[in-house]
Amino acid sequence: MTTPEPKPRGRRPKTEEPQDLLAADERYRAPALDKGLDILELLATQPHGLTRAEIVKEMDRSASEIYRMLERLVVRQYVMRNPSGDRYALSLKLFALANMHPPLSRLINQALPVMDDFARKAEQSCHMGVYDRGNVLIGAQINSPRGWSFSVQRGARVGLLDTASGHLLLAYADEGSYTRMLAEHTPLDGEVPITEAKLKETLSTIRQVGYLERDSAQSFGVVDISFPILGPDNTALATLTCPYIRRIDRHIGPNLADVREHLREAAKTLSLTQGMAREVA
């Protein structure tokens, strides 16, 4: 008569894992790590966070071990407390880690050929922006092949609240990410202030039409056209922006409407690419 093996602890209910992963789990168990990951996975499904008591109940573990693990996750900034201190939610640290060099490099590698094709068709420059620590990081930039263009340098950080890229990222963020992005924002040099009412109005318009087109808040004579690069959950992974300038000499190039459509197609292509890549993964 064989004695049944004890049921493994530290695994969230209703989680199905492939047999090879289960076998590996039995050979290389790390209970403390499992507890931390279980908490992160649980909080990832809770946009408004959970109290410590709710986490203990969901995890089916003792209050003391959950408390210790939560405190470590807070110290390491993977989890944050709300201002009243009674609820816990994921911070953006995991998001930031996911957007460090390897994933960002893959996104850039996929984007550059599409951006280059846009620049040749539109005869304009374009750049790709991603969220970075409260503002926007320019991850990729392509100049116009004609030599006449306005460009933003790759690696530059631009404002979250006064740029087309920033407004697109906010408009296509989920509720939890939106709140954290605003909380992490710190004004950059020269930032143009915006009221809360005006910001909400702008973001609502973006969601209705799917893009943003307006005079630049940083430079005269520049019209910013920006589209989101969307993931499969319809949140913005990045933005694609063209700082459009109109030539007034005898050269006849694509007009504003043509450039807008070229940029729309480029963003759509990259959104589909990102969606398919995630499905395959």
UniProtKB/TrEMBL annotation:
Residue ranges of every copy of the HTH iclR-type domain listed in the record: 30-92
InterPro entries xrefs: GAF-like_dom_sf (IPR029016), HTH_MetabolicPath_Reg (IPR050707), Tscrpt_reg_IclR_C (IPR014757), Tscrpt_reg_IclR_N (IPR005471), WH-like_DNA-bd_sf (IPR036388), WH_DNA-bd_sf (IPR036390)
Name listed for the protein in its UniProt record: DNA-binding IclR family transcriptional regulator
Organism encoding this protein: Rhodoferax saidenbachensis
Keyword Acetylation in record: no
Region ranges (Disordered): 1-23
Pfam families noted in UniProt: HTH_IclR, IclR_C
Single GO MF annotation: DNA binding
Residue intervals of the IclR-ED domain: 93-276
Keywords assigned by UniProt, alphabetized: DNA-binding, Transcription, Transcription regulation
Coiled-coil residue spans: none
Keyword Lipoprotein in record: no
Source taxon at top rank: Bacteria
